[in-house]
Amino acid sequence: MRDADLNPLDFELVGGRDVAALQDPRPAVLVGARSDAGEVCFATVIWVTPVSHSPALVAFTLRAKSHTMGIIRETGRFSLAVPPADAEGVRLVEFCGGNTGRLVDKGAAVAHALVSAAPAAAAATAAAASPAAPAEAVADAGRAGLVPVPLHSYSWEVGVIESIQEAGDHLLAVGAVTRAGTRAPRDERGQLTPYDSLLCVQHGAYAAAAQRL
Asked: pLDDT tens across 140-156, in order?
């Protein structure tokens, strides 16, 4: 008899933190934020999920005391990046998850690019509001909405916050994705196949996705 054929009532019953592990492995994700003063911070999460195709919405959770979440709440902007499944990806995830931005300058430690999270319509509106110098207006709008994306990323997305609410011992943020990119290849049907994304099995344990079944 295969394990899959066992009666579910014969399984080990779990609770507490083990409940969260029942859907592992999941992609390890670096959440990025940048304050209006230019401070850059990153946090590691695995509780991230898309919640809508159109419009493109994602949800993620962080603790209320998270320094990164504090910046996100102040600015209303965020980035999400999945590292590749390699040693450097693991190092980044461990570093950003094991240090607080209140004590460590993660922006200086993590090589990153700044990407505008502002919707395309915002730049057009800025240009229309300043017809004498539309290029400068667009540049100013972009600078005001910049968020950090680690250079060592496999996939990334940036966006603006739609809502943040309490969810038990975490804060649940829902954001609208304004821009996204990936280096994942596509299969013969044109579908993305991000098998080289870094997966988190448990705290301190990581893996790459298996081959397609």
From this structure: 444 569 999 999 999 99
